[in-house]
Fold these 2 entries.
Entry 1:
Amino acid sequence: MTTTDETDDVLANVGPRLRRIRKEREVTLAALSEATGISVSTLSRLESGRRRPSLELLLPIARAHQVALDELVGAPPVGDPRVRTKPLVRHGRTYWPLTRQPGGLQAFKVLVPRSTEEPEPRAHEGYEWLYVLSGRLRVVLGEHDVVMTAGEAAEFDTRVPHWFGSTGEGPVEFLSLFGPQGERMHVRARPKPA
């Protein structure tokens, strides 16, 4: 079925839906006309399908009936919002891609098992943002060597030599957003109470 056919089907069902909603509320065409400013004949033609519904006509009707516009047009239900991707395992780390399009900003959920590997900082083009979900994440960035805990975030230019992984105490789970240089994420820290 083409998009045009689907649109025609949705619009064909608006009239009967308008009539049903009006009758359920026990409102006459004359009363609805008075509430909306739309003539009785136009309302009648809408309900019978002889007049194509438009936003200009549907909005006042939705307001008068106190219903969402979606209810008048019978919008299809929202599809399953879950992201279903297969995890990738690289160098002992498990990555769940959270974005589907290639290039641009990429998001991953990452699980690093407990390990005591020695940091090997590397640099490359781009910008990265990390958010720790659970565990403790060791981040080596230039001359800095810090441990982040759940709820903490970091952002950095990936041209600075960097490495991140387990502290050796247990696994760590975090979100990683990586993008080309210039696509920077901003985390607004709350000021500490005085």
Entry 2:
Amino acid sequence: MTSSSAATAVTALAPETLQSWFKEHRDLVVIDVRSAAEFESMHIRGSYNVPLPLLSEHTDELAARLGSRVVLVCQSGVRAEQARQRLAKAGIDTAYVLTGGAPGFAAAGGDVVKGKGRWDLERQVRLVAGSLVVLGLAGGKFISPRIRMLAGVIGTGLTFSAATNTCAMGKAISAMPWNKAAMEPTRESAILALPAVGNKSTEAAA
């Protein structure tokens, strides 16, 4: 087994395993790193919402409040993996990334809380990127060949996003009004609401 495979085996957590952990481990903390709007639409019961930008800004403070059994959740696993890497640098090297994200947990029969339906952020990114590529190709054919550069720019951006495991477009779209929840998490309402190390409570903050 390669070191890469070993790392995946250690950090990936199946939805079924998380369901059993809720019953077996009172020290479990599940952190959903999606936006507040995505969390509001549907989230795992008992999870805490600490959006990735907030987690990135207060990583050390968050790490100081976490115990040894942490599960990170997003839509597909990409943002959760980014969060895991940041927490690892802050000394939390036992965090797990939920396979399939919140939708995968729901599909496996896990207990979730559903609210107002919204498109998840990753789906919005695909829509915007695809639309811009189509616009660039169509514009290049019917208006000016220069407009085709738009498709190239988007392609370059997506390649850079994959290489660096970041998404500038996603960050920009998340700031749009329709992606804002009624109550946006803050350091006080999200991070300081987490049970401190040694507190065995698994009650959800939201």
